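User: I'm preparing a small set of examples for a lab meeting where we compare how different chains pack in three dimensions. I only have the primary sequence for this one, and I'd like the structure in token form so I can line it up with the others. Please keep the answer compact; I'll paste it straight into my notes.
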Amino acid sequence: MKTPSAEELRKIYPDSDGKPMAENTLQLEWIVLLKFGLEACYDEIQDVFVAADLLWYPVEGHPEINVAPDVMVAFGRPKGHRGSYIQFVEEGIAPQVVFEIISPGNRKKEMENKLAFYQKYGIQEYYTYDPQRNIFQCYIRSGEQLVKYPNLGEWVSPRLKVKFEWNEVTLNIFQPDGDPFLSYHELREFKKQAVGEFQKNWAFLAKEQRKLRELQLQTKWTQENIDEAKKKIANAEQKAALEKQKAEVAEQKAGVAEQKAEVAEQKAEMAEEKIAIVEQKAEMEKQRAFQKLLQAGLSITLIAEALNLSMEEVQRYTER
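Assistant: Understood. Below is the structure token output for the 320-residue chain.
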């Protein structure tokens, strides 16, 4: 038997029944909220198909048997666009969950017929909501029947894992992870708040980064001054040590050559004078280093540690 083409199927099973999707804006808002909210729940799962106002043909060869649920969910079927849901083309899988948003135009007999249809053709969970009168009802399959459950104010769908919270004002719907179903306007407001918070945090981060760079530059400059001062002090101490060694050699020579005591004493005096000059220079170098570190903003305690001075010596330099 030849498999009908997509065009032939469209002729046999039309994509439209000529009826409007919704009778009023409130009904449409709820249909859209459910449709996109459910799609968000299963966004990362490829074999869950969600549709709104899509004709469902449950029986092959009988296109007159059809219904267009306001929203339906079919597990085990891939995502993608369809003109209608032809069950035998969909591997015989019927939608498991349907929603009907009741409008003033829906008659009691019409809703009874829909319940009978869904019961006959395998729907597992059936939900109705009248947003104008705020009436929420759920039907769960038990054997061959769709059994109406009493409204306890809170219900979690066994198949969808979606939670419904009904109160005296409205119906609230939550995704399995606890996030609420949001309308288009609520999503825009959420995005606006999120962008504002991001910009605020970004500005704060940029400000803190500038402060960090300034602190790093200041620390680098201070460390360079400390290192330079340490080098000068080390050089001065090295020169003093060398001169001291020369003086000791001179003293030893004076002791050995008694006959040259007078000359040695003169040399010793000259050596002591040189030492005094060197120590004076070292003192001056320390004084300069102290002044530079003081100008750099270091405390007296930090200067004492950097120059290896006692607090008494630092105090003496301060009083000069």
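A couple of notes for your slides: The first strand starts at residue 48 and ends at 52. The chain has seven helices and eleven strands.

User: Perfect, thanks.
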